[in-house]
Structure formats: structure tokens, C-alpha cells
Design a protein that fits this description.
By secondary structure, the chain is an alpha/beta fold. It contains 17 helices and ten strands. The longest helix is centred in the middle third of the chain and has 24 residues.
């Protein structure tokens, strides 16, 4: 019946039950040995009765298996909640990690839809970025997650444009330097700079040195809302603008336009969708709730670029991403 399907879509119990199980690392415990609810409760520091109810709920939905004696084991689906599973879902669902914590902001989606503002400050009293900076462990986990995603993206970005035509490229918000390292490795004449928050820039500096690229690559601490290192041939914004609302995205683009040398380019790399105008709807809601940002199509990017004194010169496919090259407006 349609109302049952609608309730299944709306019911918050299952996603929260999964997140609690992930946070308590139930799957890791069961991977070591089967156990009853009471035994598991002692191992994970939970109330025995409440944990038994959680386990029964998830067993009824195929995450765990419960035998007649009340002993639980993992199902193939439950295996995916193990810390060592390659899908990495446990850390993503952990309510005490940066991403699981951020997902709790969806409780205030109504606020975001009514105002267009992030829900995160309503949930935690400060912005996502301020909250992240206040917790070194979560901040390090965030940086590690961004770095872990780069190996899958970097080859397409490297192949998607002839970066060797540039003399000097600034990777704005370039994290631990993974993308710049890939670019410098592929284009031996290219020089590059990573700009990011001071602690992240320090990690990028160490990575460049470890890769033997310190002579051509450097890292500087700073904010992309402040003046950028000037005079480079290109400024790269890879998965940066979607974290920010239109006013902030405009300000970031304006900083790049102010810094780029005459005749240079600003590059925006995002998942604009196969046709350039079909951003991912799930990610779009997350950007709204977490940051007040948004996924954009290229048509959405054009007026922001125009206001920053830039225009779209070309669009280059990069697997599922696109590299949009912006140049100064005449």
C-alpha cells in the first residue's frame, strides 16, 4: 500500500539504528565472536535491555542474524558495518565522527528549507567549519577522508586538461596536496602551490617533500577568503565551491580573479552531472544542511563567475566530473 511505502521512506528508526550500531562497533564485536545482547552490551558499554531491542530491530531488517538462543551473528549486509570493510561505511555512519555528526543536522532540514541557511549551526551552535576546527580528531578524520577520495578523482582530472601549458598552478583549498602531487608528477615542467588552512598546509608540505617535489611544489597556510598568492597562470578550485552559498562562492571566485595573472585561468572542478546541468540531489541536500552550500550546474556557475569578473571559456570532461575553465571577461 502507498501509505506503507511512504512510512518506510519517512521512518527515522532504521537509519538511526544503523548509525548507533556503527558507533558502538557492534559488527566488529560480532566478527570476533557471536554474542547475545547482554554479552554485547557489556563489551560496548550499553544498557543490556536497550541494546537487545536495537539488535532485534536490526535482525528483523537483515543486518544481524538471531538464533533461537538469542545469539547474534553477522549477515552479509551486517559485514559492511565492520571497520575493515572496504566500503568504509562504519566510519561514515559513526555518530561521533565528523560525517555522522553532521548528518544529525537533518533534524533541522525544515529550518534550511524555510531560510536557505545551513542546519548545522541550529544543531550544534556553530558552523560546520568552526565545529570541525574545535576538534582535532574530527578535523584530522575529515582531512583523511578528503585525501582518501582523491586517488579515484585525480587520474581523470590530470587527464582532463593539458595542465602542462601552465607555468604555475595554485590549488586553492588543496588539502593535503594529493591532487597537486598527481599533477606535478604528470607534468614535469609544472610548478604548483597548495593553499589551505595552516595545519592542512603543513601536511601538504610534508607530502610534497616526501614525493620529492619540494623544488616545484610548495604549500602555504591561509584562507581563500583572503588575498591569494598572486601572479600564477592558473587557480584550481576542486570540489570547493559546492561547500559554500552563492555569496561566499562569488567571493572565492573574486579572490581567484584578483590573483590570476593577465591571460591566466581559473579552473572549477565539480560534479556537474553528465550534461553539466544535473547535480546530484542527495549531495545537494547535504551541502545545504551541512554548510548552506549547494551543488550547481554550469548554468548556475556562469552568473557567479560573471559577478567575479570571469566568464566560462571552455568545459572539459573528466570522467564523472567536469573541469570548467574561466577567464577574465573582456
Amino acid at each position: 500500500m502507498s501509505e506503507q511505502r511512504l512510512w518506510a521512506l519517512a521512518h527515522l528508526g532504521t537509519p538511526m539504528a544503523l548509525r548507533v550500531a556503527a558507533t558502538l562497533r557492534i559488527a566488529d564485536r560480532l566478527a570476533k565472536a557471536p554474542g547475545t545482547g547482554k554479552e554485547l552490551a557489556g563489551a560496548v558499554g550499553a544498557d543490556p535491555g536497550a541494546l537487545e531491542r536495537l539488535m532485534r530491530y536490526l535482525a528483523a531488517r537483515g543486518v544481524f542474524r538471531r538464533d533461537p538462543s538469542g545469539t547474534y551473528t553477522l549477515t552479509p549486509l551486517g559485514e559492511e558495518l565492520r571497520e575493515d570493510h572496504p566500503a568504509g561505511m562504519r566510519a561514515m555512519l559513526d555518530l561521533e565522527g565528523w560525517e555522522g555528526r553532521a548528518e544529525l543536522s537533518f533534524a533541522h532540514l525544515l529550518h534550511s528549507v524555510r531560510t536557505g541557511e545551513a542546519a548545522y549551526p541550529r544543531q550544534f551552535g556553530r558552523s560546520f567549519w568552526d565545529d570541525l576546527a574545535a576538534d582535532p580528531a574530527r578535523s584530522a578524520a575529515f582531512d583523511a577522508r578528503m585525501a582518501a577520495e582523491m586517488p579515484a578523482r585525480a587520474p581523470a582530472i590530470v587527464a582532463g586538461y593539458d595542465w602542462g601549458t601552465l607555468g604555475h598552478l595554485v590549488d586553492v583549498g588543496g588539502g593535503d596536496g594529493s591532487l597537486l602531487i598527481a599533477l606535478l608528477t604528470a607534468f614535469p615542467a609544472l610548478r604548483g602551490t597548495v593553499l589551505d588552512q595552516p595545519e592542512t598546509a603543513a601536511a601538504a608540505r610534508a607530502a610534497l617533500e616526501s614525493a620529492g617535489l619540494a623544488e616545484r611544489g610548495r604549500a602555504v597556510g591561509g584562507s581563500f577568503f583572503d588575498p591569494l598568492p598572486p601572479g600564477a597562470d592558473g587557480y584550481l578550485l576542486s570540489w570547493i565551491l559546492h561547500d559554500w552559498n552563492d555569496d561566499d562562492a562569488r567571493a572565492i571566485l573574486r579572490r581567484c580573479a584578483q590573483a590570476v595573472r593577465p591571460g591566466g585561468s581559473v579552473f572549477v572542478v565539480e560534479d556537474f552531472g553528465p550534461d553539466g546541468e544535473s547535480p546530484r540531489t542527495g549531495m545537494d541536500l547535504r551541502m545545504l544542511v551541512y554548510y548552506g552550500g549547494r551543488e550547481r550546474g554550469i548554468a548556475d556557475l556562469r552568473p557567479l563567475a560573471h559577478d567575479a569578473g570571469l566568464e566560462v571559456a571552455s568545459v572539459h570532461p573528466a570522467d564523472t566530473l567536469k573541469i570548467v575553465r574561466l577567464v577574465a571577461r573582456p
